[in-house]
Amino acid sequence: MRTVFYVGLIAFALIIFLTVLLRQFFAVDESARVPAVTPQSPFNGDRAYQDLETVVGFGPRISGSEALARCRAFMIGELEAAGLEVWTHAFTTDTPIGPKDMVNVVAVVEGSEPGLIILGNHYETKYFPDFEFVGANDAGSTTAWMLEMARVLGPQREGRTVWLCFFDGEEAFVDWSEDDSLYGSREFVTYLEEEGHLEDLEAMINVDMIGDCYLTITRDRDAPRWLESIIWKQADELGYGPYFLSTSMVIMDDHIPFRRKGIPAINLIDFMYGGSPMEHRRNWHTPNDTIDRVCPSSLQIVGDVLYHALPHIDQALDDGAASG
Fold it and tell me: Could you read off the pLDDT of 31-51 as tens digits, one per residue?
């Protein structure tokens, strides 16, 4: 009888444990939703959101598509209106579904000091033959975010030159692999090396999926500690610490080709799209990646943090942080 009692007790405890576990997996914690925030820099999250509405309005923006060409024309127009020099890096590459014409877009913020920092993102959407994928967060959010950052930085700045690089072809067409992914950033790094520009590049910051209304940016496990520390310190000082987590993970993204060439690089990504793991599965790379799941406050937070971090990155590079 005692054995039956203990077995029942263990079964009850197991049920409770599984219930808690499943609740954490499925439940959305509404308290984690990013509230409205007061801007703490010239960056305007609402204006970035307006750009996002335009970007998403082009529909699926697959590499080589007419929709992506229209999006690119819009981007270039906004960048030039902000006074930045804009140039394009076009190339043709083989993919598992055939040759694709791709175009990287670069906007130049001319610096007063030698050296170069790249802010990067990808602006195309993943190819899905069986449903319409508008990619509001991936990669609409960062495309809009980069346009607003271009306006904020303007054509000139004190410190190093900043290139805002919009990469084409980050997504895999079939299955992610060394050959089927990161087309634009891989080609761009090769171009920089061939043209002798790679030696001027001192740091690279990549942003991806930063518009989630439940913003949780994890640490990039392999990022240089000095670069990560600057960004996380700015987040803490601005009161945004809860959105920049202490946990770390590894994500293959457009920073990787730069890192492989020895460039200090970090990836800022929220890879928990929604308020729970199940929500992430429902949202990421699905038809649910729509603009209603992106919030201006999240764009504002990342904009404030990087705006204030850039001068400190300049100073750290002056102090030899990258070689330390």
Answer: 679 999 999 999 999 999 999
Looking at the DSSP bridge assignments, the partners of residue 157 are 111
Cite the beta strand spans of 36-170 per DSSP E: 85-95, 98-122, 156-167
Q: State the chain's mean pLDDT as an integer.
A: 92
What span, in angstroms and rounded, lies between the C-alpha atoms of 123 and 32? Answer: 27
**Residues forming beta bridges with residue 113, ordered by sequence position:** 160
Domain ranges of the chain: 35-318
Report the DSSP pairing between strands 156-167 and 201-208: unpaired
Which CATH class, in words, describes the domain spanning 35-318? alpha beta
Hey, which residues does 121 pair with through a beta bridge? 166
Kindly report the pTM of this predicted structure: 0.91
**Judging by DSSP bridges, how do beta strands 201-208 and 98-122 pair with one another?**
parallel
User: Cβ of 99: how many Cβ atoms within 10 Å?
Assistant: 9
Here the tokens at position 170 are 């980050």
pLDDT digits (tens, 9 = 90+) for 125-134: 999 999 999 9
Answer whether 131's CB lies under 8 Å from 212's CB.
Answer: no
Tokens of 216: 């949780």
